[in-house]
Fold each of these.
Amino acid sequence: MNNETNVTWHDHQVSRSKREALNGHKGCVVWFTGLSASGKSTIANVLDHKLYEMGMHSMVLDGDNVRHSLNAGPGMLVDTHGETFAKRFGLGFSAIDREENIRRIGSVAQLFCQSGLIALTAFISPYRADRDRIRKNLEAGEFIEVFVDTPVEVCESRDPKGLYKKARAGEIKGFTGIDDPYEPPASPELVLKTEDKTAEMLADEVVAYLREKGILPA
Amino acid sequence: MNNETNVTWHDHQVSRSKREALNGHKGCVVWFTGLSASGKSTIANVLDHKLYEMGMHSMVLDGDNVRHSLNAGPGMLVDTHGETFAKRFGLGFSAIDREENIRRIGSVAQLFCQSGLIALTAFISPYRADRDRIRKNLEAGEFIEVFVDTPVEVCESRDPKGLYKKARAGEIKGFTGIDDPYEPPASPELVLKTEDKTAEMLADEVVAYLREKGILPA
């Protein structure tokens, strides 16, 4: 390749708006936050399916696809340089580990948004400062914070993985809503009240919001 | 939401093949590897543009969009918990930091691939073991290793950022190709010889490969 090619490569970059024109919708991050068992993942997956059926392009990021690779725990990383690698980079559940967990997810969600997709993230993400930092890194209107506002009593009565039971028994320490705080968003774009509603109905509320804001076509 | 909704949410997951049907092509990771100034980013961006013009969905991951967020250095991270956060999670250029840099990029490329996109990564990624670990995490045929095989003398003569000059002067230590090894792929899917070819011609070689393998429509 000659030098000229090297110098002018920026001309080859595909603009965000061109990508969005190809997709037929805008890119954004729909950030679900709420207690364990509040319904985040369920709603995100139902929404993902609805968007797919509308011909839109979306991607769910949740514990299933993030905790096993990008944000794997120390036990899942291979120590190729002695004991240091997994210990340093593997994520546990301490305050800084949780912060880094959410920081990385925010960065990845931003990359999906930049690629023109609708990124749907479903993590407890209990701390306001962590969520606000992600909002700040995105353009205005790109971060759609959806508070899945299910009371802790309801979450605890659902308890699909038996985690609340373990937390009450002291087998899990620092469990959000039990012995670690959940900080609700100060001004979320959407609040979903999940009691007496199906996941379908709740996903429709998000679709309506995305249409209203011009992220999805009318 | 009732318990039934919680139990059956997996039915809502959109299968990979459905996503690919919507896009009109398969998802994969095109992993460019080669020396600094070998042409990786240029070719990846030209390829990205070509894919866009074909109506395909792709995303370039390179230093520009990864080193400032996901894999930021210590100086770019905010210390919210004393001095520990940036120090522990910020990535420098030591052996384990480089390994973690590539590991995270591999995880993100895999997520893009799972979302049905063609992820184009442009990083030196000098160590064979790091690249092979990413290949192992992907399904057969999903990892397309493209060796951008430009001799170090040619890269050094281009030196668009003056990095080789600094490395020769000892101002940069551990520079790949000068005082740190580059391990070429043992059996890459593609080898691009960049001398006397334009980035357009080289990107076309990748397009031809993707067509041949059925990732792109014929």
Amino acid sequence: MTIRIGILGYGNLGRGVEAAIHQNPDMELKAVFTRRNPASLQIATPGAQVLPVDAAADLRDAIDVLILCGGSATDLPEQTPAFVRLFNVVDSFDTHAHIPAHFDAVDAAAKQAGNIGIISCGWDPGMFSLNRLYASCILPEGQDYTFWGRGVSQGHSDAVRRIAGVKDARQYTVPVPAALEAVRAGQNPVLSTREKHTREVYVVAEEGADLDRIAREIEEMPNYFSDYDTTVTFVDAETLAREHAGLPHGGFVIRSGQTHGGHKHIIEYRLQLESNPEFTGSVLVAYARAAHRLAQEGQMGAKTVFDIAPAYLSPQSGESLRAHML
Amino acid sequence: MTIRIGILGYGNLGRGVEAAIHQNPDMELKAVFTRRNPASLQIATPGAQVLPVDAAADLRDAIDVLILCGGSATDLPEQTPAFVRLFNVVDSFDTHAHIPAHFDAVDAAAKQAGNIGIISCGWDPGMFSLNRLYASCILPEGQDYTFWGRGVSQGHSDAVRRIAGVKDARQYTVPVPAALEAVRAGQNPVLSTREKHTREVYVVAEEGADLDRIAREIEEMPNYFSDYDTTVTFVDAETLAREHAGLPHGGFVIRSGQTHGGHKHIIEYRLQLESNPEFTGSVLVAYARAAHRLAQEGQMGAKTVFDIAPAYLSPQSGESLRAHML
């Protein structure tokens, strides 16, 4: 009996989830729900349905876990509490400051309906959070460092695209190698924003646009760029399409601590991802397996990666995991 | 109300556990149990008792979790099933091939007594196992690599000490940088034992011993050294004491996989530990907290790191973890 999955939202992340389902033989994609015209969608799974979002309620008994692939700004705050009334759900809500409120809203709705809602699965929040938690529990005295990149920040790319005269743009967040090395060497440096990351921007400008003015507007943009050393490079549309089409990302979570005997210890977790949405989709799918199992045990309510024993993510039995992976 | 801890066995690991308890204000060391003469032990915790092992049963009601700090070869296979009949226990059993049998023995005894027994906590097995599990669940298609070191292998050091003419020795396991770089670069190399690690041995020889013969016996020792490129360096006792007194260790767990869309992803977990026993002791203490909580919930039986939700390791509430660490 496979775990029957639904996907809500078929952008980059929805396609990443679909790709991940193909790698997990205990799972099956039953339906994709979209706000677009279903006939306009070409999905990669023969046999799965493409349906309007409104039709989701009709498939309540045909789907074990619904994976929500909308955005954190406006989609998920509404969708996750709404759909957990109908399904076990998993989302990748990533607005760190609003996680407590999102958790409470999902928890209340999930408990009323008797379903499971796992929120904030991905890599940050998600795998990075797990590593922050494990490391801080093992080394209560220490410093945490998170570096992101080298990778594409969609929010920063969008911010540049809103500047007059910019046709298209791609922004990379890049950790500063010297800062990373100082942390890895156990020096526990105090690092300013500028010392931790640099920003690289590739811009396609409109013909005749004032390039100096565009570069200055980028470099001086508050919150997004003004606290960073930023490099702006103007390229043509073909170069952007050829060299900057991907969505790589990754980063480092490092805890540098010491035990009571005075010895130093460094715990480092690093991700190098060629495709941010495909990796995030893979995390969501692993937690969808956990959601299904927790629901089968009769558990309900909102959960995060902190609340879920690692074995729930694996298709293998406890015996097999102990024999082969411990 | 603090969590009251007992330590069984006061070698390097027992002292590491004691040091870790000092960093966790929600815990308190009540007693150290030893097979040596208790009067001969000088412990670092004022107010804690030092008692013979036989006295442990008398402190059943005074101790919430007993941390077993014996060796995996002969101590733990007997001690963990025996003491889980009296206490909730945590051990660092690390003979990978015998974990399933150890689990079964502890599980049966723990369920009979209504206690919790968490086995194989440390870094390998332990944190390395967790990272193997998480990474393989997220990237079902991929290759796992584990590198150990640079660090002291006590088993290899002991093996060298048994050679005639050797007064003392210290063996370091060292990952081969080129192999590590090939893995990190996503090349998925097939690596022989020799290609993954080298071994460095520092030997204090007895006066007049045949150094060539000792070096040859080390390099040709089956299982321990013959499959590796080994460097033997003869030093005097003072140099060994000055430069090789510590017990550093660490290593890397890397999964190099790809998602269905064909993109590559590398997940890397790295430890750099100045003191293997102090770090292992810190992991044991974090899981002792989990053991206490699971027991308070009425759970029983054997558990491993795979079975325990990460939040159980932390003294913080779920609310606090979600607000600050997710």
